[in-house]
Amino acid sequence: MSTTNGWIGKSVKRVEDKRFITGKGNYTDDIVLPHQTYASFVRSPYAHARILSVDTSAAAAMPGVVAIFTGKDVAEVNGVPCGWLLHFKNGDPMKEPKHPLLVTDKALHVGDAVAIVIAESAAEAKDAAEVVMVDYEELPAVTDAFKATQAGASLVHDDAPNNICFDWTLGNPIEEVDAAIAASAHVTTLEFVNQRMVPNAIEPRAYNSSYEASTDKYTLYTSTQNPHLIRLLMCAFVLGIPEHKVRVVGPDVGGGFGSKIFHYTEEALLTWATRKIGRPVKWTSTRSESFLLDAHGRDHITKADMGFDKDGKITALRVKTYANLGAYLSTFASCVPTYLHGTLLQGLYTTPKINVDVTAVFTNTCVVDAYRGAGRPEATYLLERLVDLAALELNTDPVELRMKNFIPPFDGITQPGYQTQVALQYDSGNYQGVLKKGIEMLGYADLRKAQKEAAANGRLLGIGISTYIEACGIAPSAVVGSLGARAGLYEVGQVRIQPTGKVSVYTGAHSHGQGHETTFAQVVADKFGIPMEDVEIIHGDSEAVAFGMGTYGSRSLAVGGSAIVKSIEKIIEKGKKIAAHKLEASEGDVNFENGKFTVKGTDKSVSFGDVALTAYVPHHYPKDLEPGLDFSSFYDPANFTYPFGCHIAVVEVEKETGKVHLKRFVAVDDVGNIINPMIVEGQIHGGLAQGIGQALFEGADYDENGQLTNGSYMDYCMPRADDFPMFETASQVTPCPHNPLGVKGAGEAGAIGSTPAVVNAVIDALWSAGHKVKDIRMPMTSERVWRAMQS
Amino acid sequence: MSVRIHVRVNGVDYHHDVEPRTLLVQYLRDTLRLTGTHIGCDTSSCGACTIHVNGKAAKSCTMLAVQADGCEITTIEGLSNGIELHPLQEGFRECHGLQCGFCTPGMIMTAADLLQHNPNPGESDIRHALEGNFCRCTGYHNIVKSVQYAAEKMQAVQQNKKEVAA
């Protein structure tokens, strides 16, 4: 392998920025095709209703209407599938009710689509949709995951008794955990809600599907995080059309945060409809539709007990969670509260006994699926709230309590990985290091003194600590397959050296803000020892890129980057053969360094560009070697990667009003090796804002009728620029021992550690004034904090 | 029924017949195909559609195209001359003030308005001025730094101009 040319580790400015800052980005809604038509949907205003009749006759006569389709028209088409099969504890498969493209008999949540209207313009489609007459008979709705399982609750799906999709358990036998809790010197118990979040990518979902009769080919432009997966699911599971006849393109995508991973009904319906009408069909979600339909996140109701011995060592953890799945099973819905949540409950601690029990529940609400962090924020919130609360209850310092219980440092090479009680094996870690660095940056001891002084003066200052670990780069395929995944989780990376030595890289990962065009180019330029501008990263087009699993779970660099490195290695190996022939040396004597092939012990060399040209103009060429310099690799990792870190919030709570002021936020994250520190820091910042947003501002509120009462930006509190201080961030580097770049992933870290840090800080502030409250429901509005102080 | 309007957008005159209900942002995107101005919501909250109307920042989803009749409009496409970047565009790139890029045009246009009447804003001035523009990617941290970068650069240019004039 070549030595570095210095690209790796540099804060290179992003190559993709030019088009975005000049208004030249190309998002799905920017694309208009010849003979374009536009779609609008007729959606149920009720959370649960029988559809008695649908009358489209008046709408069909409206100006510009091209076609109207109802549930009956697509009754023969399959629904959108779930990508992860779980089983009940008794071995029965989970309940998988059909998620139809358009509903026929019953609408199961507000926004469920009854009909699609296609017209010459978006305005005409909307006008006509408004006059489609639907007779509904409203039925009782369920929205709360716990209440939905109780006797007498209305059923979302007739074949899912008690609205239970599945129940699931992991860890040590419950009897052992019960006994360990019972024998503990102290038990901290917390009942809480990890509230439902609306992902709110600023670009609303948009799709534009077209069909070319002459070639029998479809093209779908979609605001997606994983075009190949959408193609696979849509073709093989929903529409039954040959995959090679469908091109799926995810052009510039305006943020995802999980919500654009999933295969949505509208993607398949537009693709079905374009062939019916023979013209391209475009649909762009309104923000109101985004609130109602983009898969929500979190929504757990949990009771957890953590036991401690007389020395403050954790003895056991017992968790019972009701996870809300919404009305249908979204693409990854079933694995989020289970394999991405239960498996993380070891946290950073040596807890010897752990049992987690999850009941996954259907309700008359929007589907719930992965949202930045997906399961891991829920696990971290649970653990870090318990540990901080235990410190308050035991009147001990939360830093000391954590240090006492941390898993000792291990590098995963000379020391083995850490086997948890909940299935995972951590790769490498130094948890003491990030906490130590965090409290140093904060000036912890001084702040504790300041807190005491503030309390004496009637001011409520709080310090909240959270440490976290997450599992990223989800894989290997064999393991996820055994856990119920219906797809592999490798990644594809093709590196094509052009005859002139320029490099085209095709990755199955998809960038929607992460900056792959820069980071991946840094890796390639570094390994080949060439200028970055000689490298082009191509992603997001199923016709250009052989295959891919897309971007989510902080996997792009760890899995996708590793696939590219594998191809780079193959190219260098072949390049050495070509160079040896050109230099009349033996292949074993050829080195590749800084963009040159050299012969050991001589001054003979040939440049990367010369070797590339020779590969394509093979006049003087090794016998038995194919021309060309183009390799593709599939990389299936040996394990997940495990980033970790320490987040600390400092808040001041207004005594009179309960308003929380976030004064400081310190984040020390260890995401393994770093290719571009500027981009990693940016990822952390964004995650922090979302995590802090959950603690202080955000949360979807359904009323008992299943109406989303804050389904707009006038009602849902989005974090704004003046809600935050400047973040204080730092890195620690513990390389991942099992991938070639040593990277772990940075996309979700900020959103995972920050939420409990802020809540812990507010609880800490209240305890400093003698209000010994255990929990304040998120988002911690002034009213909720004020009420907590009055209790 | 449609209404004839005349607007000057990024220095070019346009005459079009528009439906009275057409929003200014729809006119810019669909008729003029200036797709750098984005639509992120339906309640005038997110600011992705921010442009300048007669030199002032305006949310183009909150104006009808007919209301813009006779107005001078600048969109993100017209902020710089196409060769050099505006200091704000440069600042956003230098300071990693964008990730997915969707909010960026509106963010830049709002910041440009701020710097017109407050050339030396403090951190809290910037945060306050950007309150009507949502970003879900950056946590606003680097956006604040980008605006500070631009303010410093623009002030340095002004200072230089003064010195040259003197």
Automatic annotation (TrEMBL), chain A:
Positions of transmembrane segments: none
InterPro entries listed in its UniProt record: Ald_Oxase/Xan_DH_a/b (IPR000674), Ald_Oxase/Xan_DH_a/b_sf (IPR036856), Ald_Oxase/xanthine_DH-like (IPR016208), AldOxase/xan_DH_MoCoBD1 (IPR008274), AldOxase/xan_DH_MoCoBD2 (IPR046867), AldOxase/xan_DH_Mopterin-bd_sf (IPR037165)
Residue runs in coiled coils: none
Stated name of the protein: Carbon monoxide dehydrogenase
Residue ranges occupied by any Aldehyde oxidase/xanthine dehydrogenase a/b hammerhead domain in the UniProt entry: 22-140
Oxidoreductase recorded as keyword: yes
Alphabetized UniProt keyword annotations: Molybdenum, Oxidoreductase
From TrEMBL, chain B:
Keyword match Cell membrane: no
Pfam families xref list: Fer2, Fer2_2
Keyword Iron-sulfur: yes
Keyword terms, alphabetized: 2Fe-2S, Iron, Iron-sulfur, Metal-binding, Oxidoreductase
TM annotation in the entry: none
InterPro entries membership: 2Fe-2S-bd, 2Fe-2S-bd_dom_sf, 2Fe-2S_ferredoxin-like_sf, 2Fe-2S_ferredoxin-type, Beta-grasp_dom_sf, Diverse_Oxidoreductases
Domain of life: Bacteria
Residue ranges occupied by any 2Fe-2S ferredoxin-type domain in the UniProt entry: 3-79
Signal sequence coordinates: none
Name of the protein described by the UniProt record: Carbon monoxide dehydrogenase
Species of the source: Flavihumibacter stibioxidans
